[in-house]
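It is worth pausing here to work through a concrete case rather than discussing structure prediction in the abstract. The textbook approach is simple: state the sequence, then state the predicted structure, then interpret. We follow exactly that order.
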Amino acid sequence: MIKNQNYFVFARRGEVTINEGVVDFPILLEAKEDIKSNFESYTILGEQCSPMKIKIGSEELSVWESENFFIVRDSPDFILRSGKAVKHILEVKRKLGPSKLLYFPGISDPYLIPTFFLLGVDVFDDINAILEGINKTRYTMYGRMRNENDCQESNVEFIRMELSLLKKAVDDGTLYNIVERLNISPKNTEMLRHLSTKHYEVFESNFPRYTPKILAGSLDSILRPDVRRFNNYVSNDYRKGNNADVALFIPCSAKKPYSSSKSHKRLIEAIRPFRNGIHEIILTSPISTVPRDLEDTYPPKFYDIPVTGTWYAEEKQNIRNVLTNYLKNNTYKHLIFFLPEDMNFVQDFNFSNSVFIPWNKSKSDEFAELTDTLREIPPANKVKRDFLKEKLTSIASYQFGNWIKPYLSEMRVTRMFNQFMLTLSGKPQFILNEEIGKLTIHKDAGKIFIGARKFLVEIDDFKPTSNIYAMGVISCSEEIRQGDEVVVHHSGEIRGVGIARMSSAQILQNKKGVAVKMRN
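Step two, the predicted structure:
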């Protein structure tokens, strides 16, 4: 019996009961002890396997099946071809489903295990560790090293510690950071690029909505699904929630949110007399273009990048693409680019009605030219703006979609129990979770989602308690990703609200594990 406890993309962590004993997975098999095979039979951890065939494209693969395992034995040596490795594993996983643990014998390269695990491989073996150890090759955190002695034991221990780390990374949502930053094997980077480009749709649909931190240490971070989600939204769907006709483009800051940094605080104070007619937009990497009203959400508040003053072609092109589309959907009479010298490349974008002003932070009058320019622009927006309502509306629109905006127009921003919330007739509808930059749904707002048929999880006729398991789910909205706020109902009757512990695809495929963690 398999008990799935946590997910991250296609990776999962949990327990499997084998012969009345409980084993944590992902599993490292000791080939000499845990696997018994010949041409006619196959046994894994004491479970007898039966042969079967599956068709993957034009290839027919031999698979051995036991009560808890699928073993793909005669899979081609796809490990030598990164693109095929990704496609092959994803197709095998889709074909066989998640009901059993997946094992490809002999692919346990320690510097590729995290990526194979991310792709959905549940079981690994010590075959390579033993062979390389006999040949006096030792696994280290810096790569393979030649050694004077036999390294079998240390190599196996290296993989055990690695799997222990990966289990924890699934629990705390940091698995992708580990995979992305493991650059010891070029094949790891190749596989991630194939996954992020050629298989983006299935990758994104299973990628969590939030992670604790984006460590954007390489250009490949532009391809992350959570980064691309944000860039795509700002590029195609974002609509400014104000009448400001001056767009002020400014650089990012090391501190997040940007407005809490010293430089942005000085800027905000300098433009305060004009701010009612200004829409501030931050240009950065890898998330390119961040309207001020979205700076408190994910990912703008939760990324970190190396700052060197050098911008690579891919980063410049990313900013150009998003910003060009953004300005097609959001119109301003004046574009002011107030940027440091290292961002002069933005001038090459040739936007009309634009003014470029250098931001030299070492000058005592760093804002003089900017304020002089703003003083010459006639004020167009005389109605005092509610910046907080703009922020909450923008966060809600990014989190749930633009469809929600009409429902928010009549709501008021209230501070209660030291939390900002959107209320209707004095009743809470959405509460801002400032720690993770998202809105939580109050049960009273459930009818909004029922009417829109969005972010819904339909369950059998029972009263949910702390957790809803996937086996009790009838259907769920396809837009749900792990970490999303959801409304739980039975035939339109609201049973509560909570947080999705899996994506909609995982809930419907797995039918095991916790689907929703209930709040009320």
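Step three, interpretation. The radius of gyration is 26 Å. The domain at 214-375 is CATH 3.40.50.10630 (Rossmann fold).
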